[in-house]
């Protein structure tokens, strides 16, 4: 299991998309001094409640001030679901 887990869901009004994950991820990784490779980023699918996906952040380029990442999404692995199940259920119920 990763050292840190970030669980996120878009709770804003209007269209729900994963367009802010990259900038939010950069901010959280920097603010909390998290190692991207040791952090599991989980998002609740905004269209399918109780459906969670993990993000894989890959450095794409450096814009002169910070690294910009691309993100690949995948379903949670069975071991991740099992380990995170109590937290994911609590997270879902609180939204």
How do the helices and strands line up, and which of them pair or pack?
Layout: E1 4-8, H1 21-31, E2 39-44, E3 52-62, E4 67-75, H2 78-94
Parallel strand pairs: 1-2
Antiparallel strand pairs: 2-3, 3-4
Give a structural overview.
The protein has 95 residues and is an alpha+beta fold. Helix content is 29%, strand content 33%. It is built from 2 helices and 4 strands, in the order βαβββα. It has helices spanning 21-31, 78-94, and strands at residues 4-8, 39-44, 52-62, 67-75. It has a 4-stranded mixed beta sheet with strand order 1-2-3-4. A hairpin with a 4-residue loop joins β3 and β4 (67-75). The longest helix is centred in the C-terminal third of the chain and has 17 residues, at 78-94. The model has no long low-confidence stretch (mean pLDDT 78).
Major β-sheet profile: 4 strands, mixed
| Beta strands, count | 4
Q: Could you report the average pLDDT, rounded to the nearest whole number?
A: 78
Structure annotation, total helices:
2
What overall form do the CA principal axes indicate?
A: globular
Assembly type = single chain
Strand order of the largest sheet: 1-2-3-4
Helix residue percentage: 25-40%
Strand content: 25-35%
**Which class of secondary structure composition applies to the elements?**
alpha+beta
* Radius of gyration of CA atoms, rounded to a whole number: 14 Å
- Which residues form runs of ≥5 with pLDDT under 50? none
Q: Report the span from N to C terminus.
A: 25 Å
How do the SSEs run, as a string of H and E?
EHEEEH
């Amino acid at each position: 299991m990763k050292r840190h887990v970030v669980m996120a869901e878009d709770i804003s009004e209007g269209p729900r998309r994963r367009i802010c994950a990259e900038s939010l991820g950069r901010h959280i990784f920097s603010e909390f001094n998290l190692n991207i490779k040791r952090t599991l980023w989980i998002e609740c699918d905004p269209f399918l409640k109780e459906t969670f996906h993990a993000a894989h952040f890959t450095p794409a380029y450096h814009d002169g001030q910070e690294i910009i990442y691309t993100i690949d999404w995948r379903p949670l692995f069975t071991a991740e679901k099992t380990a995170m199940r109590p937290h994911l259920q609590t997270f879902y119920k609180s939204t």
